[in-house]
Amino acid sequence: MDKSTRILIAGAGIGGLAAAASLLKDGYNVRIFEQAPELGEIGAGIQCSAPAVKVLHNLGLEKRLAEVAVKPKAFEFRLYNTGEVLHRVPLAEQHLQMHGAPYYHIHRSDIHQILADCVLDQDADCVTLNAEVTGFEETDDGIFLLLADGRRIEGDIVIGADGIKSAIRDQIVGKTPPDYTGQVAWRATVLTERLPGNFMDIISAIWCGPKKHAVVYYLRSGKVLNFVACVENDSWQEESWTVKADWQELKDDFAGWHRDIQTIIDNIDKDQCYRWALNNRKPIYNWRTDRAVIMGDAAHPTLPYMASGAVMAIEDAAVLTRSINMNENVPDALDMFQRNRVDRAAKIVTGSTELGDLYHLSNKREFEAGFKKRNVAKERNEWLYAYDPLTVELV
Ligand SMILES: Cc1cc2nc3c(=O)[nH]c(=O)nc-3n(C[C@H](O)[C@H](O)[C@H](O)COP(=O)(O)OP(=O)(O)OC[C@H]3O[C@@H](n4cnc5c(N)ncnc54)[C@H](O)[C@@H]3O)c2cc1C
Fold it and tell me: What is the DSSP secondary structure assignment for residue 177, as one 8-state letter?
């Protein structure tokens, strides 16, 4: 496509920034409109597998990522009360050898900052802040992005990377009410220096128990421990990463769990516990009009059980850029992107939902049988991590 094509992106999250970085690298004219008054992400971690890391490396970010990321040795699924290892997914060298890029744990603010720098280094005027997008207006030969303050920005393509409550998605597919899963996610971080020496190996531990599980891994060269815990809880509806909840409720949720979980919870700052209601949305297969398209959580929000929401957003950025490069006109490009992404996204969304059941079984016998039946390591290596958004054939 002509490099003068004007591409307007709603949202400067990980997905919007990755798309902008990739499109700018290929020479397009890109503008991002972000509702927030400043660029940033919350203080939690993100697990990032080879498909996304390859895209980030291709953007020239290998060195900066390696400076801040942790390379876990494995995922260890553990029984909630005894710590018995139920299943192990080797990462580190094996992930690198099998899939051609490392598996990383990264602080969200770090990856967001690295991507924002990558965008702003290429075009210092790319991001407009305080710009809430309300929708778009499409004409025969162009498209306008509509902002809440009345501005109408003219372009050729609109990309909705505006997250789980996307205004662009609402306009393309109509409002699709979320299904509350009856689960909440707690999140908190602990400074490793507060924990006993050699508290945990450099792994990602997924503690599985009745009606809840907790995921624990290191960030920032091991200086910070990230704690995310999903709990069945019918009374909390707030779908926001930034709403605080009572530490005592977190402590009560994990009464009777292994002493390592107690040690982590006891060392969390009591006023720094956040809780987010986990909603689920069924996969959708229509992501576009002739000139507007959605990506990332706007297109395929997912439960976090495969740790692949942000990974998919970064994969989208690469495949969307390639589709734009490979087509002369906008509808064909957006159609190629949608055609090549919907099935993988749907498989991850439904697969993540199913995994929730495995993580929340009732007792040791059920967990041992469940993990014996379902070889998570094999499944993930065969299709989830084996995908390469930079080289996969686009049909
Ligand atoms: C508990 C939990 C753990 C997770 N762990 C992982 C993990 O380990 N690995 C992984 O890959 N994924 C993980 N995810 C998923 C991941 O966080 C998301 O999939 C990812 O952040 C989506 O990125 P995005 O850019 O599409 O959307 P967002 O990050 O939501 O960004 C959207 C951006 O758009 C802006 N915006 C919204 N509305 C408007 C508007 N109207 N106008 C202008 N701007 C707007 C927002 O301010 C924001 O900046 C996890 C999710 C949860 C809930």
Answer: P
The finding on whether 155 has its CB within 6 A of some atom of ligand 1 is no
Three-state SS string over 3-45 comes to CCCEEEEECCCHHHHHHHHHHHHCCCEEEEECCCCCCCCCCCE
Could you identify the atom of ligand 1 that is nearest to the CA of residue 187? 1
For 315-331, how does the pLDDT look when each residue is reduced to its tens digit (9 = 90+)?
999 999 999 999 999 99
Query: Residue 348: what pLDDT?
Result: 97
The atom of ligand 1 lying closest to the CA of 296 is 26
Could you tell me if the CB of 228 is within 6 A of ligand 1?
A: yes
Q: Which residues of the chain have pLDDT under 70?
A: 236-239
Cα(241)–Cα(297) distance, rounded to whole angstroms?
14
Integer Cα distance of 379 and 368 in angstroms: 17
CA atoms in the 13 A half-sphere facing the CB of 183? 22
Q: Can you give the pTM of this predicted structure?
A: 0.96
| Residue whose CA is at the smallest distance from ligand 1 atom 6 | 307
User: What pLDDT, on a 0 to 100 scale, did the predictor assign at position 181?
Assistant: 86
d(CA 197, CA 192): 9
pLDDT digits (tens, 9 = 90+) for 66-77: 999 999 999 999
Residue nearest to atom 35 of ligand 1 (CA): 11
Residue 306 beta carbon below 6 angstroms from any ligand 1 atom:
no
Closest-CA residue, ligand 1 atom 53, reads 304
Q: Which residue has the tokens 């999140």?
A: 187
